[in-house]
Structure formats: C-alpha cells, structure tokens
C-alpha cells in the first residue's frame, strides 16, 4: 500500500527582527525600521513592512536603504533577544511534533503527518501554532501547509504577513502551473535565463518538457526540475542537522592590512569558541580563517592540527598563524575576517581514537 501523503508546515515569522524591535519599543510601531548598524559597511538584517514599502530589503547595504527611505530608523541588532524569542517559538512547535527542522531563528519545517496534539488536520495545527505565537510572543507568523517541503515554503510566502495558505494534494498541479519558474527552489537568475532560451517561463511550460530533454540539457539538475514541475519532493523533515561549522565574522569600517588583523581574529575566536561550548556531542578538529579582500574576493585557509583546539586562545593562535598561508601582496587590504571551527566528528569516536594513539607501544 502506498504511504499516505506527508503533511508539512513551513512556519515563517513576519519581519522577525524588526517585529521584535517594534514590539519592545512602542515608539517604533508603524514606522519604517531597519535592523542594522548605520555606516558604509553595514547591511540590513531585517526591514519592517513599513520600510519595505520604500523598497528596503534585508541584505541591502544600509546606505542604499537610507537613500530609498530617508526617514528610516536604524536599530542595532540584538541577537540574544532574538534567540530567546526563537526558543519560545520552538517550544510552541514542540507541543505538536518532534519532527522540526529549523532553517534559521525565524523559520522552520514541521512534519505534522502525526501530531501530539491530536488536532484533526494540518490546517488546524497551523492555525493553532499561529494563534499560540500571537498570544505568547505578541508577534505574527505566516504558514504554508502542503504535501512536501518545497510547496510548503512557497505557500508560507503566499499570504504574508500574518497569513495562511493551504495546498492540498489534488491542488498541486493547478497551483504550480502558472507560477514563474523562478519560484522553484534552486532556480536563480542564471537558470531562469537558460530556461527562457528554451521558451520556458512558467512551471506549466517546464512540465511540458520531457525528462530526457531536460537531462540532456542540464544533467542531474534536469531530473530535479522535472520533479519540481510535478510537485514532487521526497526530502523528509530532518529534526537534527549535524553542525558543519561554527564561526564568527566581522566587516570593518575601514579596510585593514593582514598584519593588522590579529586583535580582530582573537576577538572573533572568543565568539566562535563561546558558540562551540554549546556543542556537547561532537568535536571540531579543523580551524578555518576566512578573509574578504577590498575587491570582494573571498579567501579561506584551514588547518586540522594533530590535537583539536582546546581553548579560545589555541583557536586564535592557529587562526592567526593561518595568515602566513595567504599568498597576497603585503599591501593588500581586507574588509572582512572570520574565524571558524569545522571538521566535526562524534565525541566518543574521537576520544576512542585519541586513547588508541596515546597507548604505550608494546615491545616485540
């Protein structure tokens, strides 16, 4: 017997960082707000809906945002507060299911095919979650309900802000057919242009192309396009995604020489190490140094030492030493530096290997 369709939610907080600021400071309500530091090197972390009317968006340079909206109010980000609210929201999710896949502080996938709460449908579960978020955090969330993850994510954006969109299995084809192909995950500007060369502008037009033709043109990605056009996505909700890297980085107000980076590397190593202390089950063995040049070229250097870094000082020492592997002119300048820990392995297996190598040799 075929298994029943999954019931997937994608819950996305509305203008999360900016909404938290407006909630906590009544003077900001109803006004255009950008969560960002002011300055030439700053970018917008989040924009309130009042700011979006002027074209202000997240990841936009702060100077451009201010040109678009001269009355824009800048509020420095407070990630400690945002993380606290995010934990509240995750607790609400957990009342309904253990299958929660966080994507960031403000959005997550939930598999509600079977729930703890016993509500009669995925739609009822989404409504209950949104109501609890509103009541307990005084914030709003939008949600999408669908048979799989990619459709749920599209749906959550459909009626923003404070909206709900439900795509039932029998509605999938009709929902997808008129959509521009740019709405499909992984289809960016470059892929859009390549599909346009084939006369493909909508998902319906993409669906009319045979699998063999798409694979011949796009390789393995052609098969993925073929599936997405039909609303097929078998990726499950993954409650625990193993940590790939823990890092901290900073963009400078003025570009710096390589020799001037040490105090910043040590400060960022402290931040990365503090984050690493929350990782109890796995061990990081690799130190990563990230640099961005004044002409926006990104460089990374890494090292896996014989012994894992055991303190923020050791992490900083290794990261500082990695500068010697940067083969650039001495007068080159850098606009960003980052320090990270990667190469995660299970703590028990790491300790077992360490114990093995530390055993004394046996005379034969």
TrEMBL record:
<feature type="active site">
    <location>
        <position position="107"/>
    </location>
</feature>
<comment type="subunit">
    <text>Monomer.</text>
</comment>
<protein>
    <recommendedName>
        <fullName>DNA polymerase IV</fullName>
        <ecNumber>2.7.7.7</ecNumber>
    </recommendedName>
</protein>
<dbReference type="InterPro" id="IPR017961">
    <property type="entry name" value="DNA_pol_Y-fam_little_finger"/>
</dbReference>
<feature type="site" description="Substrate discrimination">
    <location>
        <position position="17"/>
    </location>
</feature>
<dbReference type="Pfam" id="PF11799">
    <property type="entry name" value="IMS_C"/>
</dbReference>
<feature type="binding site">
    <location>
        <position position="12"/>
    </location>
    <ligand>
        <name>Mg(2+)</name>
    </ligand>
</feature>
<feature type="domain" description="UmuC">
    <location>
        <begin position="8"/>
        <end position="188"/>
    </location>
</feature>
<comment type="similarity">
    <text>Belongs to the DNA polymerase type-Y family.</text>
</comment>
<keyword id="KW-0460">Magnesium</keyword>
<dbReference type="InterPro" id="IPR050116">
    <property type="entry name" value="DNA_polymerase-Y"/>
</dbReference>
<keyword id="KW-0239">DNA-directed DNA polymerase</keyword>
<keyword id="KW-0548">Nucleotidyltransferase</keyword>
<dbReference type="InterPro" id="IPR053848">
    <property type="entry name" value="IMS_HHH_1"/>
</dbReference>
<feature type="binding site">
    <location>
        <position position="106"/>
    </location>
    <ligand>
        <name>Mg(2+)</name>
    </ligand>
</feature>
<dbReference type="InterPro" id="IPR036775">
    <property type="entry name" value="DNA_pol_Y-fam_lit_finger_sf"/>
</dbReference>
<keyword id="KW-0479">Metal-binding</keyword>
<keyword id="KW-0808">Transferase</keyword>
<dbReference type="GO" id="GO:0003887">
    <property type="term" value="F:DNA-directed DNA polymerase activity"/>
</dbReference>
<keyword id="KW-0963">Cytoplasm</keyword>
<comment type="function">
    <text>Poorly processive, error-prone DNA polymerase involved in untargeted mutagenesis. Copies undamaged DNA at stalled replication forks, which arise in vivo from mismatched or misaligned primer ends. These misaligned primers can be extended by PolIV. Exhibits no 3'-5' exonuclease (proofreading) activity. May be involved in translesional synthesis, in conjunction with the beta clamp from PolIII.</text>
</comment>
<keyword id="KW-0227">DNA damage</keyword>
<keyword id="KW-0238">DNA-binding</keyword>
<dbReference type="InterPro" id="IPR043502">
    <property type="entry name" value="DNA/RNA_pol_sf"/>
</dbReference>
<dbReference type="Pfam" id="PF00817">
    <property type="entry name" value="IMS"/>
</dbReference>
<dbReference type="InterPro" id="IPR001126">
    <property type="entry name" value="UmuC"/>
</dbReference>
<dbReference type="Pfam" id="PF21999">
    <property type="entry name" value="IMS_HHH_1"/>
</dbReference>
<keyword id="KW-0235">DNA replication</keyword>
<dbReference type="InterPro" id="IPR043128">
    <property type="entry name" value="Rev_trsase/Diguanyl_cyclase"/>
</dbReference>
<keyword id="KW-0515">Mutator protein</keyword>
<keyword id="KW-0234">DNA repair</keyword>
<dbReference type="InterPro" id="IPR022880">
    <property type="entry name" value="DNApol_IV"/>
</dbReference>
């Amino acid at each position: 017997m075929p298994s029943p369709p999954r019931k997937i939610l994608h819950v996305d907080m509305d203008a999360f960082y900016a909404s938290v600021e407006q909630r906590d400071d009544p003077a900001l309500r109803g006004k255009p707000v950008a969560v960002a530091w002011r300055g030439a090197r700053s970018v917008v972390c989040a924009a309130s809906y009042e700011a979006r009317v002027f074209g202000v968006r997240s990841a936009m340079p702060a100077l451009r945002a201010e040109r678009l909206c001269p009355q824009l109010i800048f509020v420095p980000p407070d990630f400690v507060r945002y993380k606290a609210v995010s934990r509240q929201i995750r607790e609400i999710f957990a009342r309904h299911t253990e299958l929660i896949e966080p994507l960031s502080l403000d959005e997550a996938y939930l598999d509600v095919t079977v729930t703890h709460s016993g509500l009669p449908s995925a739609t009822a579960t989404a409504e209950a979650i949104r109501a609890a978020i509103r009541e307990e955090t005084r914030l709003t969330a939008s949600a999408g309900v669908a048979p799989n993850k990619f459709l749920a994510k599209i749906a959550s954006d459909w009626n923003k802000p404070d909206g709900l969109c439900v795509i039932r299995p029998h509605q999938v084809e009709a929902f997808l057919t008129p959509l521009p192909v740019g709405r499909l995950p992984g289809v960016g500007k470059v892929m859009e242009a390549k599909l346009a060369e084939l006369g493909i502008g909508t998902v319906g037009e993409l669906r009319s192309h045979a699998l063999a033709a798409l694979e011949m043109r796009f390789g393995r990605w052609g098969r993925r396009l073929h599936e997405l056009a039909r609303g097929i996505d078998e990726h499950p909700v993954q409650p625990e995604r193993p940590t790939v890297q823990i890092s901290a980085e900073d963009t400078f107000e003025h570009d710096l020489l390589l020799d001037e980076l040490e105090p910043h590397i040590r400060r960022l190593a402290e931040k990365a190490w503090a984050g690493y202390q929350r990782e109890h089950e796995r061990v990081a063995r690799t130190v990563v140094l990230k640099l961005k040049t004044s002409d926006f070229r990104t460089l990374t250097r890494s090292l896996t030492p014989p012994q894992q870094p055991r303190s923020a000082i050791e992490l900083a020492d290794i990261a500082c030493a990695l500068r010697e592997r940067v083969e650039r002119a001495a007068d080159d300048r850098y606009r960003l530096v980052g320090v990270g820990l990667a190469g995660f392995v299970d703590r028990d297996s790491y300790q077992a290997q360490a114990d093995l190598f530390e055993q004394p040799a046996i005379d034969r």
